[in-house]
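In the laboratory, one determines a bound structure by crystallizing the protein with its ligand and collecting diffraction data. In a computational setting the workflow is compressed into a single prediction: the sequence and the ligand go in, and a structural description comes out. We illustrate the idea with XIL.
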Amino acid sequence: MCMRLAIVLIICIFLGLLSCDEDSTSPTVTSASPLASTFTYSPTLSLQQAAPFPVGLATQSGRIQHTRHTDILERDFNSITAEYEMKQQTIHTFEGQYNWQEPDALVDYADSRGIRVHGHALIWHQSTPSWLETQVETDSAFEAIIQSYIQEVVSRYGNKVASWDVVNEAFDDEGGWRNTIFRQRMGEDYIAKCFQYAHEADSSILLFYNEYGTIWNEGKLAVMMEMVDDLLLRGIPIDGVGLQMHVGYQFPALSLMKRAVDAIVERGLLVHFSEVDIRVNPDGKLTRLTEERAIAQENRLKEIVQLYQDIPADLQYGITFWGLRDNESWVINFWGNPDWPLLYTPDYDAKWAHRGFVEAFD
Ligand code: XIL
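The predicted complex, in structure-token form:
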């Protein structure tokens, strides 16, 4: 009897290991996550059926190996973004050397299914390879490396990657320019230079500037729009702005989000809600998702999607969710709290937030 119990236990442990998250860098399901399918529903309409604009998902090459992931991806989404595998740290292994394995896997997958790819991100200070930070002697060599990197990547994929975030997060939370390695070595005009390089590589690709915090920080919005206006004035090609939309269930107020949206629309640029997730446990007090927060998240997403619908149709580039299942979200590691910021449970059940998206079109 005892022996049998031990064998069953061993099998359970083994199966448990097998069902581990495929991405070892992702947070695993914690005991605080609702493993049971609470606050879920059975969708009759998918996200892409509900929305007249593209709906995107940040995904990973490891995740598209799994049919439970791709079944939902192909049902709900018609655009993808690499969550991290199309950043410089993954691709640019050394000067003149590139790793295309993971980005190619994502682009080929999308291409074979007619799914749009939004590229993220050519230049981001948080994703610079360490050799680039330490081993490049002169500023002019640094700039030449950045130019050839941007041009290699953009021209490799051509229009299989419809658009790129050219520069990500160039401004700080005090409303100033972030003193990144790009700014230090290429000067304040580095953003314009990067857009120009990308445009020269393939003039048919849409080029975005992407930023967080401009939906609540007036100073940051102002400095970003000043930069955008400068590009427009000088005829530097920029097609749109990404608002990352890492929001909370209460913060920021809709009127603040609207201020940022209006600023972009006024310039006639495309608006991308580029990295949506909705934290429901920002103060860390919850250990489980509650009914009240599930409802709040549903209503919150509904109002965000309604705000998006007020944008003129020709400026709606789409809404991209930053991950599929709650337990896969970057915010859990980033903030160190349990949270349930996305549209699916660890069991791949659609949450009420999914319904909030669909109901925004009623
Ligand atoms: C995060 C990814 O989710 C993580 O997997 C990665 O390790 C670090 O980057 N703003 C951005 C995204 O523009 O690229 C970040 O994505 C989240 C914050």
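Residues 83-84, 168, 212, 244, 275, 330 surround XIL (CB under 6 Å). Keep in mind that any predicted model is a hypothesis to be tested, not a measurement.
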